[in-house]
Structure formats: structure tokens, C-alpha cells
Amino acid sequence: MSTKGNLELERLTGDASCCSSRPAAYPSSPSEWTFQHVTDVLERLVGQFDSNPLLAEPNQLRQRLEALDRIDAYLPYTPQAVLAAESIDPELYRRARTICDRFEALNCELYEAIRCEIQRGSRPDTLLQWVRPSVDIEDVNGSANDMGYDYLDELISGVFQFEEPDDRHILRDSEKAFYQPTPVRHIFRLMRLTELTATDVLVDLGSGLGHVPLLVSICTQARSIGIELEAAYIERAQQCAQRLNLNKRMFIQKDARVADLSLGTVFYLYTPFRGSILDAVLIRLKREAATRRIRICSYGPCTSVIAEESWLEAATAPEAHGIALFHSRP
Ligand SMILES: C[S@@+](CC[C@H](N)C(=O)[O-])C[C@H]1O[C@@H](n2cnc3c(N)ncnc32)[C@H](O)[C@@H]1O
After folding, report:
1. Percentage of residues in the chain with pLDDT exceeding 90?
2. Which residues form the DOT1 domain (predicted)?
3. What is the pTM of this model?
4. Cα(37) to centroid of ligand 1, in Å?
């Protein structure tokens, strides 16, 4: 993920751990970098990316994102103290910025092509072509097994173009998780595991900006519902769905403890809450399971709690770092 994407995510989630672009050969903290380090590395990167015409090819998204990540790691993080005394050669700075602008414009063309495909309602082949290799690799390796973000998250964030939610008023609560999206490859893993059909309704309990219901609506025949406590997130999810002409989805601003769950066939929880809130929602899901067979998918620490429920049967290994699937017992 490019640094720009990381910062966006970091600001949304308050989590600095998702920034992964520190170059290994240099001191780990930007404040320890010297002016000479920054100049040397930028010069090397600019030379390397300028002389590689392949990077302009449409199928080089991943490489471009990586290149942006590496350049961005030096431009915004250049230590202010060093810059105050000496400044980067303006020509080097200009060349680095030009490369970033060119790569970002090429990526935007790809995001726009994917948006057009989605808006037409056709099969999102351009999107799927980027997703398959990542999800296939994880199938071969056994599971999609870590919490980090990758190029797919950057791609989806470019396609969805969420406007910044006004989340200043959102209160912290010890049992309520703050917003953080499920890494996109895990969402595709969820869709692969559940094989959603036109008769399914996936309900994301604590849907945030709506990545899961949106992608389910784009990539499957199923309907999807996002239930989210925070109006600011619901508003952004609705806007995105409208821009993309997605009809098989619904976003409802409600506490999951009191929302109507009667339409759901598959429920998804990316650890939206814990403690008494999770207990209350599990009691409600158990009641739903008494009326019909349901499936539950989970991700993160809530999986170990869900795995303890005797009315559920694990269909995958219930691990926190990948998507877990449970079936309600008959
Ligand atoms: C970790 S985020 C997951 C977002 C989304 N499901 C995804 O995977 O991309 C958890 C979300 O649950 C929401 N949430 C927390 N408590 C809730 C509740 N009682 N009812 C509905 N949503 C809740 C939070 O506001 C946050 O947006």
C-alpha cells in the first residue's frame, strides 16, 4: 500500500502499524535518517523508475504501487530538522514528484475502468483479474493468514473513492471496536468459502465504510446488508453504492443488538465489539438459527468467542488471522 494510502488508513484507524514502507537498509526511524541517506536513496529510486518503461504498462499496477510506496517513504518522511538546514536538490524533488504524478494518473485510469465496468453491471473482470492471483496463492498456502494490507486494498480504495467520513464525534467504548476495514483479500476469501448465491443475504454486523457489502454486491449474485452504528460511515457507504449503481445492497444505521436480522443467511463479524455486546448479538443470532440454517463468518479475535458457541459447527479452522466459517447446527 502506498504511504498515502497508509496514512489515510492510519488516520481512520488510529493504527500506525499498517505503515510498511520503511526501507530495510536504513535506520528504522525516519528521525534517524541523514540528509545524505535521503538524497542517495531518492536519486537511486528516481533513476531506476525513470529508466523502466514497463512500469507504464496497465498490468504493472502492483509494481507502480510499490514504486510509489518507496518514493513516498522518502518525500513526506524527510526529517524536517535536516531539511531546515539543507534542502533536497529541487531538480531531484521535481523528478520524484513527476514520477509519482505519472504513476498515480496511470493507476487512476485503471480504477476508472473498473468503476465503469461495475456501473454497467457487467462481470467485474478487470477487478477480478487483480484479485485472483492473490486469493489463489492463499488457497494454495492453506489460508489467507495475516492481518496486513496489500495492493488489493489500495486498488479497492482507488475504485471506491470514499470521501473522508466526519468521524470527530465518534465516542470510544471499551467493548466497541474502532473502525478498520477487513483486508480485501480476506473479503474475497470469505466469498470463496461461502459460495454465495442469489438466495443468500450477507449481513455485515458493524459494516464501517461498507467494503464487505459493496464487494459482495459487485462480485456475487447475493444481496448484502451493512448494519453500522455510526451514521458517518453509513453515509459514505451509501454514497459509494449510489455512485457505482449497486442495487442489491442496503446500509442501515442501527446497533447490531437491536437491528432486524431476519433476512440474513450469512452473518459476518470483523470483531466489531466484544464482551457483553458480543454476547447479546450471539444470543440474537442463536435465535435466528432456531428459525433457519444460518452461517457465520468471522475475522479477528471474536472468532475464538464464536467458536465456543455450542449451536455452531466450525467449517474451517477457527483462527483469528484468517476468515473462519461456522454453520448453525440443525
Ligand atoms: C473493525 S470494524 C469492521 C468494519 C467492516 N465490517 C469491515 O470488515 O470492513 C467494526 C465496526 O463495527 C462498528 N460497530 C461497533 N459496535 C457496533 C454496534 N453495536 N452495532 C453496529 N456497529 C457497531 C464500528 O463502528 C466499526 O465501524
Report:
1. 67
2. 186-251
3. 0.86
4. 42
